[in-house]
Design brief:
Layout (H helix, E strand, L loop, with lengths): L3 E7 L3 E7 L5 E8 L2 H15 L8 E5 L5 H8 L3 E4 L2 H8 L10 H14 L12 H34 L1 H6 L8 H9 L3 H5 L3 H10 L5 H12 L8 H37 L4 H6 L5 H11 L9 H8 L4 E5 L2 E5 L6 H17 L1 H12 L4 H22 L5 H4 L11
Parallel strand pairs: 1-4, 4-5
Antiparallel strand pairs: 1-2, 2-3, 6-7
Length: 411
């Protein structure tokens, strides 16, 4: 049976491709432009060397990404597409030589060789539905903005510690990332200006954001801002104040966009047919559920077993055995977004699920640390989720932990 193997080394505006037959003989090599014209030329190239009898499923493509219109076009054409991890590709190319030489044509040749020789060891791009892809886009964007907000806050906090540490104390009760605390900081960014804030000005900002106990909080903030503290010269304070205002305004914008994206995450997640199954799991709300769904995807053929899903999640341990050395360790090469979501789920589950709590306590009793015990609980929850998705049933507390229930003592 005729088969073709294609290596696709992609760049922002072009693709270097190589077409091989089953013996590894190079049939063609070309540089194609990104876009409709380029993908059309690739189809023509495949048809020229495959002939009329070639079916789309007999074409295998290796490319170092799993996203973008080009990859979606390859999948839509019916080709078998492998998203090769760049680290795997780099290790594979070392068999050609150790000089470190690199070229786009050479990379395309290596990718074609890789999917031809080691295709059984690679994972095809998941055939997720459009709804799952939409959830992935908004869930990742939402989480990225939260990470960016955290980084911006750390920069602001570092700046305040250098010239105005009293602000950290004064606004601690509001949380400095809150919009009302940031507005007060913008209104009075230097120690001298902050000491002149009146109780009425502070109360007005708190009232606009519907804070409870406004008078009491306003008095506490005013008193803290007027406490004596070490300072810097006026020009330096003004310069620091300008930097603090810039960070504060950026945080306000990030707060607004995080809230807006959160609504989008909930809306897209709720529209997915698997949402109710995810929400039935302990420790999962709409945001965490959307993140887990986004990273697992909804391709029913992607995970052949619960173990395969656990391995992808990075919750299952790995064994290192060589000679007399044998150790079991946590996986650190994993999807960090998924690992973070599953850690949050496990943390919440021990407070909402008696079975999860017993399982967690059992791990701690075996001298497992806090994080290892949560990771093992997360591993168990991934297995339960896999069973629920496979059977299309909601989570049931008794069924999920029947093998881990405390045996009753016979009378």
């Amino acid at each position: 049976m005729l088969v073709l193997f294609i290596g696709d080394d992609w760049a922002e505006d072009h693709h270097d491709v190589e077409v091989q037959d089953a013996t590894g003989r190079r049939l063609a090599a070309a540089r194609l432009s990104e876009g409709v014209e380029g993908i059309a030329k690739l189809h023509t190239l495949i048809a020229r060397h495959g002939g009329e009898e070639l079916e789309p499923g007999q074409v295998t493509v290796g490319i170092e990404t799993d996203r973008g219109p080009w990859v979606q076009a390859l999948i839509a054409a019916g080709y078998r597409v492998y998203a090769v991890n760049p680290k795997q590709a780099a290790r594979f190319k070392e068999r050609y030589g150790t000089s470190g030489a690199k070229s786009d044509k050479g990379d395309a040749h290596a990718l074609a060789d890789m999917v031809r020789i080691d295709g059984a060891q690679l994972r095809t791009v998941a055939g997720d539905s459009g709804q799952a892809q939409a959830v992935r886009v908004v869930a990742r964007a939402h989480q990225t903005l939260i990470w960016e907000r955290t980084r911006t806050f750390q920069r602001l906090r570092s700046t305040l510690r250098e010239y105005f540490p009293g602000a950290l104390t004064a606004y601690a009760g509001l949380e400095l990332t809150s919009t009302d605390a940031l507005e007060l900081l913008i209104k009075a960014p230097t120690p001298g200006e902050a000491a002149k804030l009146t109780k009425q000005q502070i109360t007005a900002v708190l009232a606009r954001h519907r804070r409870h106990h406004r008078d009491q909080k306003a008095r506490a903030i005013q008193a803290a801002l007027r406490e004596p503290q070490l300072g810097v010269t006026a020009p330096v304070a003004a310069a620091y104040g300008a930097a603090a205002v810039a960070h504060a305004k950026l945080l306000i914008t990030l707060n607004e966009q995080v809230a807006a994206l959160e609504e989008q995450v909930s809306a897209h997640f709720r529209a997915h047919p698997d949402a109710e199954i995810y929400l039935s799991m302990p420790g999962i709300g709409e945001i965490t559920g959307a993140r887990v769904l986004a990273e697992f995807g909804d391709d029913p053929t992607r995970y052949t077993s619960a173990k395969a899903r656990k391995n992808y999640a990075g919750t299952s341990p790995i064994t290192r055995a060589s000679g007399r050395t044998h150790s079991v360790q946590a996986r650190f090469a994993r999807n960090d977004r998924l690992a973070d979501a599953l850690q949050r789920q496990a943390f919440s589950a021990i407070n909402t699920s008696p079975g999860a709590r017993r399982y967690y306590d059992k791990q701690r009793a075996r001298d497992s640390g806090y994080n290892p015990a949560l990771r093992q609980l997360g591993n168990r929850l991934v297995g339960i989720l896999h069973g629920c998705l496979k059977t299309r049933t909601h989570y049931d507390e008794a069924t999920a932990w029947s093998h881990h229930a405390t045996p009753t003592t016979a009378a």
